[in-house]
Design a protein that fits this description.
By secondary structure, this protein is mainly alpha-helical. The chain has helices spanning about 5-20, 40-50, 55-65, 85-95, 110-120, 125-135, 135-140, 165-180, 185-190, 195-210, 215-230, 235-245, 250-255, 280-290, 310-330, and strands at about 25-35, 75-80, 100-105, 155-160, 295-300, 305-310. It has a two-stranded antiparallel sheet with strand order 1-2. It has a two-stranded antiparallel sheet with strand order 3-4. The protein is elongated, with a radius of gyration of 29 Å.
Length: about 325
């Protein structure tokens, strides 16, 4: 065996020993650290040593260089235990095995509700996230119908690397929204003589109205019927949106207080300027495929279901019945 071969074998054995003795075995709680974009191997190794994840930055650098991994280290926020072996550390750093966070966006949430959740995941103030989500320019850049990103942040559960910028989260949510729309759905919208913004706007109202999902096609039918005959939608969720938040009970003075707001469908005919929340695929499908029938009214019962009626007299009778049911429930002894 030549001297060159001996040196190569010795180096290989040393590399194996270094990998095996990264710190005596993992122990203790995970330690969090950040690898900024553009960080070199020396900076990363020094951070690992400072966090006591490795005992020697020099030995870790020697190992990483031996593996030709210096250029493959990925930026991000990591968690590792003290004493983690060099091989496992390098695997995480080169594959981008960073800390991740789940972001859950429920159906029917507004940008005011979504913003704090994205801000927390991104580590920025909530008002900064809200400013982006409310921006017309942000909607134009992503080529959604607008006027803002309201309605186009698809409700779902997302997993992002911790510290992901809000811009990138929004891109993922808008991308998910786009995937909901099939060619068949677009053809159906065209058959209804509705554009994408109109469909999503009406779907967002249906989403906010429906407590029982099976009622969504019938609720959609009521609004389609009203639009067809030029009757005002008179949708409570649009007034709540104009008010900037939900009220436990919507009063006439609340409606009057936002009389000039274009989202007040008690005062303004037709659809509001844009969506009032993020509708689910189910609400969009219900809007595109409303139930048959000529219902023009519905009233909520105490259990969350609705009574659908065709005439104002029937509607007023349903309201009285619902109010009586609510009073009876309130008077019933607690069990």
């Amino acid at each position: 065996m030549t001297h060159a071969h001996l040196r190569h074998c010795a180096a290989f054995i040393a590399l194996i020993l270094l990998a095996a003795c990264g710190g005596g075995g993992p122990s203790g709680p995970p330690v969090r650290f950040t690898v900024p974009a553009g960080s070199g191997l020396s900076t990363v190794a020094d951070t690992l040593e400072a966090r006591e994840i490795v005992r020697s930055a020099t030995r870790f650098k020697l190992y990483a260089r031996g593996k030709r991994a210096a250029a493959r280290i990925q930026p991000g926020i990591y968690e590792m235990q003290r004493g983690t072996g060099f091989a496992e550390i390098l695997r995480k750093l080169t594959t981008g095995d960073v800390v991740k966070t789940r972001v859950v966006i429920p159906e029917g949430w507004t940008v005011m509700q979504v913003a704090p959740r994205l801000a927390k995941a991104a580590g920025i103030p909530a008002d900064s996230a809200l400013k982006l989500l409310s921006s017309e320019d942000a909607a134009k850049r992503r080529k959604v119908p607008g006027p803002t990103l309201e309605g186009y942040l698809y409700p779902a559960t997302y997993v992002f690397p911790l510290g992901t910028p809000v811009d990138r989260m929004v891109d993922a949510m808008v991308g998910r929204y786009r995937r909901v729309w099939t060619p068949e759905m677009r053809a159906r919208a065209q058959a209804l003589q509705m554009d994408e913004r109109q469909v999503v706007t009406l779907a967002s109202i249906v989403e906010r109205e429906a407590k029982v999902w099976s009622e969504r096609p019938t609720i959609a039918a009521v609004y389609h019927n009203r639009l067809r005959i030029g009757m005002r939608l008179q949708a409570d969720p649009t007034v709540q949106y104009a008010l900037g938040g939900n009220r436990a009970r919507l009063l006439y003075r609340d409606i009057d207080s936002v009389a000039d707001n274009p989202y007040n469908t008690y005062r303004h005919a037709g659809l509001p300027p844009g969506p009032i929340a993020s509708p689910s695929a189910g609400a969009i499908q219900a809007t595109l495929n409303p139930a048959p029938g000529d219902f023009l009214y519905f009233v909520a019962r105490p259990n969350g279901t609705h009574v659908f009626t065709r005439t104002l007299a029937e509607h007023n009778a349903a309201k009285r019945a619902s109010q009586a049911e609510a009073r009876a429930r309130a008077a019933a002894p607690a069990r």
